[in-house]
Design a protein that fits this description.
Length: about 550
């Protein structure tokens, strides 16, 4: 049995046929045909989450880790608009979401009918594609059209690059009827292809890389293949090449510069000529470091190649000269075997700076008091091997860039739009998807903002939540500008009066507290014990000490 609404039944059937294995559903009435249809697909696990905003981020976390489309289903009206923040994040992070929204018949829009808003295309600005299905396809031609639209929508979540796709489905009453079967649409299977660089162009790119004396490769956010890592290691061995990565690049190797914000403090007037690249090659998603963005915009390399199969003319550093529309794996594979070693000390120049900054970092950390910076060192030292980390915005994503990272840990963060609004929900979905120990490092404001993340029945003890409570939005005491206007700080910092312990215990979550190094060590052992539900470690740091220490940290690096 399935819904007697053809569009609902075909959406569920074709989703299952095309490999969708999870549907995150928020309860409602108008989406009843979709609920019935998806619940009757044995291949699809249906997860109920009441809060649509949280549900969307939860689905984002699932799809982010599964690298497969997850269906997201809600009722009509304002429920749809609550998907907006997560959809924007999925769009910029390239996460495949199949967003299915039930709607009232289009004839009732603007006619005083409840929950009938201008819903068709309402999320289009941050969708790869928006599709409006016919309300009641009664004849063979209409059913063919409906089936073709559904095929195209599902496939578009992955091709040519992943991202969210919106399917809006109007339903007229009655909503709860069932039927044994419908005439089936044809399942249209996509054939995977991979573009490559034409030989003449590849030869030119190889020659440019071989003869340039200073080549910087900069990796953005992503989870990449071991083949790409191996290729980049081969390139980094060339004297003219320096490879730079961040935590969320998931490309760590001793041959790379992996702590950009730390290393870049070693750039000064004496060595800037040696460190400025002639050729900049970029790939991947967002780069966290504002420092590298600022200095590259100032340096303006002679050539900047951006390698991306989907994002065209992506000119973050205001120096783009070549747009290369292939995947990074294909690009570097075509490049690496032909590039010759040049006469250059560029890679060595960056390694010398990096080593000097690493030594200064270790010296500074020995004298650092209990604050956000020392807390991060302790957290990263205690992360379990073969586990995952979700970095919330904005302080956690920045602090993580200052420390060397151990092998075997995968890093993710909502850096597509860099909002704080769904970090916990995303981490919960990610932990459920992988079944691996997942540590969410978040702040007190982000934790309170997304507390509805725990309002569902799909919580897992694999998630460990670390809340660094520095008095609310402490990053604004470090950023130059807000810190100079004490009377305005409450409007930036957003200090709160929420009781984090009561909030955690209200959801039945194990709760631990740390206020100094000794209690932090003990609490981390408890946090990583066996729990049936997500455990919360609440670390309280001083609101004035942490920004002062961070300023001094960068000052001492520059003076090293």
């Amino acid at each position: 049995m399935t819904s007697d609404h053809f569009a609902a039944a075909e959406l569920a059937r074709l989703s299952a046929a095309k490999g969708v294995r999870h549907a995150v559903i928020s309860p409602g009435s108008r989406n009843a045909p979709l609920v019935m249809a998806f619940l009757r697909q044995p291949e699809i696990s249906c997860l109920r989450i009441i809060d649509e905003r949280s549900a969307a981020f939860f689905a984002l976390g699932l799809a982010q880790q599964l690298h497969a489309p997850v269906a997201l289903i809600c009722t009509s009206g304002s429920a749809v608009l609550n998907y907006g923040p997560a959809i924007a994040e999925a769009f910029y992070q390239r996460v495949p979401l199949l967003v299915i929204t039930a709607d009232r018949p289009e004839e009732w829009v603007d006619q005083g009918e409840g929950q009938a808003i201008r819903q068709s295309g309402v999320l289009a600005l941050h969708m790869k594609r928006s599709v409006q299905l016919p309300r009641a396809p009664q004849d063979e031609l209409a059913r063919w059209h409906c089936g073709r639209l559904i095929n195209e929508a599902i496939d578009s979540t992955l091709l040519p690059v992943p991202g969210p796709v919106h399917v809006n489905v109007p339903f007229a009453e009655p909503l709860y009827g069932t039927t044994e079967t419908h005439p089936h649409s044809r399942t249209i299977a996509p054939v995977m292809t991979e573009p490559f660089i034409l030989p003449d162009h590849a030869r030119w790119l190889i020659e440019q890389t071989s003869t340039s004396r200073k080549v910087m490769v900069l990796a953005g956010q992503g989870q990449w293949s071991t083949g790409l890592l191996s290729t980049l290691k081969h390139l980094a061995a060339l004297p003219q090449v320096s490879v730079h990565t961040e935590a969320t690049s998931n490309l760590d190797d001793p041959a790379f510069i992996t702590c950009i914000d730390r290393a870049i403090e070693g750039v000064n007037e004496a060595n800037t000529t040696n460190l400025r690249p002639d050729l900049l090659i970029t790939f991947g998603g967002a780069v966290v470091s504002k420092r590298i963005k600022g200095i590259l915009r100032h340096w303006k390399p002679d050539q900047h190649w951006n390698v991306d199969a989907g994002q065209r003319y992506h000119d973050t550093y205001q120096s783009l000269t070549h747009d290369i529309a292939v995947s990074p794996e294909v690009f570097f594979a075509q490049l690496v075997n032909g590039v010759r070693a040049g006469e250059s000390m560029y890679g060595e120049a960056w390694r010398m700076v990096d080593q000097r900054m690493r030594a200064a970092h270790e010296h500074i950390m020995h004298a650092t008091p209990f604050c956000d910076l020392s807390v991060f060192r302790a957290l990263l030292e205690h992360l379990p091997t073969n586990s995952d980390v979700q970095l919330a915005n904005s302080t956690p994503a920045r602090y993580a860039q200052l420390f060397d990272r151990r092998a075997g840990i995968r890093w993710s963060s909502n850096r597509g739009t860099s909002g704080i609004d769904g970090c916990t929900s995303t981490a919960l979905g990610a932990a459920l998807a992988t079944g691996r120990t997942t540590t969410l490092i978040t702040g007190d404001i982000a934790f309170c903002y997304d507390s509805n993340a725990f309002w569902n029945d799909h919580l897992t003890g694999h998630l460990k939540v670390v809340v660094i409570d520095n008095g609310g939005g402490n990053i604004f005491r470090y950023i130059e500008g807000p810190d100079k206007h004490a009377e305005l700080l409450p409007w930036f910092e957003a200090p709160h009066r929420r009781d984090i312990e009561a909030l955690a215990r209200g959801y039945g979550l194990p709760y631990f507290r740390a206020t100094d190094h000794d209690t932090l060590t003990r609490a981390l052992e408890q946090l990583y014990g066996a729990h049936e539900r997500p455990a919360v470690l609440h670390i309280i740091t001083d609101a004035l000490t942490s920004p002062r220490v961070l300023r001094d940290y960068f000052k001492q690096l520059r003076e090293a």
